[in-house]
Write the structure tokens for this entry.
Amino acid sequence: MIATADSDPHFFKKIVTGDETWCFAYDPTTKRQSAAWVGETSPRPKKLRFQKSRVKTMLVIFFNWQGVIHKEFVPECETINAVYYKGVMERLLNRIRRVKPGMCESGDWFLLHDNAPSHNANIVKQFLAQRKVTVLDHRLYSPDLAPADYFLFPKVKSHLKGHLFDSISDIQKAMTSTLNTIAKDNFYKGIQKLYDCANLLYSRRDVCQKLNNKSVISFTQILFIMPVLKLSRRTV
């Protein structure tokens, strides 16, 4: 990915990426969101402990640097298995054909999704190969390489935390409304961040390989390398 991006300045504008996520009728606020200033002599405010609601709906969404291309909510009692996800891919390609005809005709674009079993199933791979869709490699257990995970889902859900919705349709309306408020510039920055995330991932891999090549890894080395990785993670 890094080599391709270095050779093609428009590489990140050619990526269509997406994933699925649960959206809850009630999602508790984070500690930072619920924090409150108190005086030195004031008693600490009491906080009730809430849990996520069991009422939920699953959102499937795909986007590029300009914004959302396709989204859908999974019907109740449905699960995202290989057959369902193949249908998602069909609907995504049909949507691209309607709203991005130039991209569809040229075929000069890339699909980025993670290695979930439904995404990686043979029928999905065969379908995408037949449609001549180029799928970017996504390393296992690498949410840092999934713009939906590090950018879109946190951004949308942060606005909905602490709100109680009466029904699944209300959840879906709120998610749709919040998605519509995200500026195009934010999508571009979210996709562009892939370059820094990929660089960080490869630097971690190189460090681990160097350590693994040594016959003995001292406890001092472990203590040294972990803060370095954490610090580099924060700077991205």
Notes: The first strand starts at residue 15 and ends at 24.
